[in-house]
Design brief:
The protein has 366 residues and is mostly beta strands. The protein has three domains: 111 residues, Immunoglobulins (Immunoglobulin-like, Sandwich), CATH 2.60.40; 79 residues, Immunoglobulins (Immunoglobulin-like), CATH 2.60.40; 133 residues, Immunoglobulins (Immunoglobulin-like, Sandwich), CATH 2.60.40. Helices cover 1% and strands 45% of the residues. Strand 18 and strand 19 form a beta hairpin. This is Ig-like domain-containing protein.
Length: 366
């Protein structure tokens, strides 16, 4: 700055620029206003000082000051509002590269009669989506047991306070800061995210996988293959469960499992294979120990598959031609269910015969 004396009392004797704010932060796409006041000696050596030019520029290295109204980077986005000894700069449609130090300069009719206010005003421009990312907090956790109470809370550090929108699997869910399930069900599983928004912008959270777990549903059993002596028979067990169930195959009245896994294949079916079979499904949500036991007992989740070997009682009978001394197997299905107040399993059998035929007696085991 420069000092020039004047000879009238009550008037400023110095050159100066004073900014309303030294640091401004704004969001991309918004409008910002930077203002200042300035002073100068009204007379110098009996010559009245007249302001001939006033303008704003962005301080850039290795470049001379360029009036922002003439800068192509600011074309159509800059306006000045100046009056006696004050001037403001308005920049609309802020861009990320508008980040700079902005200075005000005025020029007068006096010899060396120009002045620049420095340092200027530092402008920081941040992205329009640069609100702090919201965070989802699950209570008690994101891995929950079906039927329990769960609350998802979305929070974000924002000023003014943010408004929230919830999404499930990218579909809008509700506009609240919390999602509450008083008794959560399996269909509530999915990816949940929230969006925070205020007048300065918006931001979205990282998706949270809500995993609703439950014990195995009642298993179902099916059989594949011709049920003939020496043939290959495959038993398949399935059950809806989360996490996925593990399966064990048992023969009635035997403690040790015959096999494990979804499928069990008897490759060479013989008479001694006849009997009642069931599969047992278990996961960590449905058992209290290594075997699946509900509070009602093991039978709660059991389907029984009945394989009964039938042989022709008389190879000289009229039916011998059709049976051809071939040991045929009849397939029966039995399901069990144990209610809360029962101590024994209830069995219900459904016989499935390939076709009706005459025979002296029924050898199937019920």
């Amino acid at each position: 700055s420069r000092y020039l004396p004047i000879y009238q009392s009550g008037l400023s004797q110095t050159w100066g620029v004073e900014y309303a704010s030294k640091h401004i932060c704004a969001f991309e796409g918004s409008t910002v206003e930077i203002s200042c006041t300035y002073t100068y000696p009204p007379w110098i050596s009996y010559k009245k000082t007249v302001v001939q030019r006033e303008f704003w520029y962005a301080k850039l290295k290795d470049k001379n000051p360029l009036d922002l109204r003439e800068d192509p980077d600011y074309a159509g986005r800059v306006t000045y509002r100046c009056s006696e000894q004050s001037c403001s700069l308005r920049i609309s449609g802020l861009r990320l590269n508008d980040f700079a130090e902005y200075r005000f300069k005025f020029e007068t009719n006096q010899p060396d009669g120009s002045f620049t206010g420095k340092p200027g005003v530092s402008l920081t421009v941040t992205g329009k989506h640069s609100l702090p990312f919201p965070v989802i907090v699950p209570t008690p956790s994101a891995e929950v047991l079906e039927g329990s109470s769960v609350t998802l809370t979305c929070s974000s550090d924002a000023n003014p306070a943010a408004k929230y929108t919830w999404f499930k699997d990218n579909r809008p869910l509700l506009s609240e800061d919390k999602v509450h399930f008083s008794s959560i069900r399996s269909e509530h599983s999915g990816n949940y995210s929230c969006k925070s928004e205020n007048k300065h912008g918006q931001s979205s959270s990282t998706p949270l996988l809500l995993d609703v777990q439950y014990p195995p549903r009642i298993p179902s059993v099916s059989v594949f293959g011709k049920i003939l002596k020496g043939s290959s028979v495959t038993l398949t067990c399935s059950s809806d469960a989360n996490p996925a169930a593990n399966f064990s195959w048992y023969k009635k009245d035997e403690d040790s499992p015959k096999a494990s896994g979804t499928n069990w294949t008897i490759s060479d079916f013989r008479a001694e294979h006849s009997g009642f079979y069931y599969c047992e499904a278990e996961n960590r949500r449905g058992s209290l120990n290594s075997k699946l036991k509900s509070r009602w007992g093991r039978c709660e989740f059991v389907d029984l598959l009945v394989l009964q070997l039938n042989t022709s009682p008389d190879i000289n009978s009229p039916s011998a031609e059709t049976e051809a001394a071939e040991e045929q197997l009849e397939l029966h299905y039995s399901s069990t269910h144990l209610s809360e107040n029962q101590e024994e399993c209830l069995y219900s059998n459904i016989r499935r015969n390939p076709k009706p035929r005459q025979r002296p007696e029924d050898n199937s085991v019920e």
